[in-house]
Write the structure tokens for this entry.
Amino acid sequence: MKREDIDRIASFLGDLKCKTQKEVEEARVRLLGKKGEITALFDEFRNVDRAQKAEFGKALNELKQKAMAKIEELKGTVADSGASDGPKADLSMPGDPFELGSRHPVSIVRQEIVDIFRKFGYDVAEGPEIEDDYHVFEALNFPANHPARDMQDTFFVSAGHPNPLLLRTHTSSVQVRTMEKMDVPIRVICPGRVFRNEAISARAHCIFHQVEGLYIDEGVTFADLKQAILLFAREMFGPDTQIRMRPSYFPFTEPSAEVDVSCNICHGKGCNICKGTGWLEILGCGMVDPNVLEASGIDSKRYSGFAFGMGLERIAMLKWRVNDLRHYFENDMRFLHEFATAPEV
Ligand code: DAH
């Protein structure tokens, strides 16, 4: 082995240019393959004089490192195919954008409602979607066979049992579970998914979402309820929002009311969203019936409370003026993308 052999290969490496991966591979084989030139020098190394071994060994190792680095470098910069007119891929092209998901509008509204009530000091409580008759109806003052049960057409999981399992028809069941578990005072909101045997249309679906609210303490009155709802409505729909309460009926509250907010589109003048009335219905509410308190072991002589329940899809429809509930369930990307810029909440 001569010093020149090493220098010759080193200068070859310095000048080496390849246009295709094939050429890179050929260069690799020529230098580092089994019968490659550098490999051959390593074979010859055993015949080198002892005195020169250290110098040659070092030079030879450096040469091999250089050759390997050069081959790697060429592999990375040369186009894949055998084309000889430069790289085929246009490396200056913009990359494929990685699509980021966005929050579902119902999730956005739920978070907004939770944030508002958190500010008022409410905790979040959750309960099971597969419930029993007791927590959905019985403990909420719907006696067996009472016609009020028809207000909520139910999917049963197991029928023919004294306390059948069913898909909860409202999140009011979480009120009951909370009253069973927590000590008074209680201040919770319960967001969740509910199920009803309804024909699917622009205004109804068999799956939807509600938020339930419950406040129990000594001396809670209807005035407190009204104030809580008014503050909520103003946070949610804007500071000029008015509310109106209409007498209603729910088995678990007495008295009960339905709440409308002033139409934030026409500001009370009347438009097609509020059907010319200037008002939009947003929730049901009332003072918790003493029977409901007692069923969960709360002394109704000492404590009173209010409850309310609202549909999230309905609130989202009003907020974004969506006129068909089904949009929320079809996962059409064109619809969901409309909310991609909604503020991160
Ligand atoms: N649970 C009722 C429903 O699904 C909504 C509701 C009305 C909840 C009045 C309440 C309430 O807590 O007080 O239709």
